[in-house]
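Q: What would this chain look like folded?
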Amino acid sequence: MSYHIISIDSEKSSITAAGGRLISQSPEGTHTIPMEDVAAIIITSFQCTLSSQFLIEAAKQRIGVILCELYRPACIVLPTDRATDTELLRHLAHMPAQFRKRLWQKTVDAKCHNQYELARSWNQTHPALDKIQHLIHTTKESKEGEVAKLYWSIFSDTHAHGTFTRRQNAAGINSLLNYAYAVLLSLVLRNLLALGLDPTFGIFHMPRAHATPLAYDLMEPFRPVFDANIARWVSNHRDDSAEPLTKEAKKHILSTLLCEVHYEEKWVPLRYAIELSIRSFREAVLSSLVTPYKPWRISTIKWAG
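A: My prediction, written as C-alpha cells:
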C-alpha cells in the first residue's frame, strides 16, 4: 500500500529511480525506498536535481510530486490520469452543511483546548483562565474569537508586560507570529496536496482568489505549538530593541517543526502529527462520519535540543 510521504529537504540532492526504487542522493548519503510504498514526494530543497526517469516512474506509480519555493508549494506534478482524486473531490464538494459544521466544531474545540492548556502553563493564576475554561465547554458560535481574546491577554501579561495586542498587520511580536503561521500553513498545505485533498474546499473559511481555505481550517489546532515556541523566544529576548524577525528568530521558529508532540497516545514529530491529523480528516470525509477525524490536542511538548 502506498503510504509514506517522502520529504526531500537537503540543500543539494538528486533524485532518480531504478528497479522500482526511489533513489535520493545528498551530502548525507544515498537513500532508497520501493516506489510502491510512496504516496507522495515533497521537495523543499533549493537545489534538487530530478531525472526524467524519476518523473516517469513516479507517474506510473501514481505518485504526486510537490515542488516548493521557500517551503510553500509552488506546483504539483501528477500522472495524466490523476489530475485529482475524483471520489474525494466529490465528497468534499458535496459535503452537507451540517457535516461541515460538525467537523469545524471539532476543530475549534481542539484549538480552544490547546490555547487553554498552553495559557495555563504560562500563568496558572491568571483570572482569564476560568473564563476560557467555561467557554471551551460551550457551543457558542463566537467561542473561537472570545477564547482568542482572553488567550492573547494572558500571553501579553506573561510575556509582553501587558502591552501586546494580536493584530495581523502589526509589527513586533506580531511579525514573529505571522511568520510562524506562514510556516505552519505551508506544511498543512503540502500534506493536503500529498493526500489528494483539494485545499479550495474548506469547512469554515470562505473561498477567495488564490486562497486555500481547507488549509486555514485544519491548521487551527496547531497554532498554539508555534505560539509556545515564540513565547520561549520572547522570554529570552525581552531586552532586544531591534526588529524581532531576525535570521536567528526565523531559525528558532523553524525549529518548531523538529519538536515532538503527543498524538493518539504516541510521541511523534510535529510534522507527522499534522500528517496524521489530516489523514484522519480525509478518512472522515470519505466515510461521511465525523468520528474518524482526530484533531491534535496539546499535552507536553518535547523541544528539539
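The CA atoms of residues 193 and 290 lie 21 Å apart.
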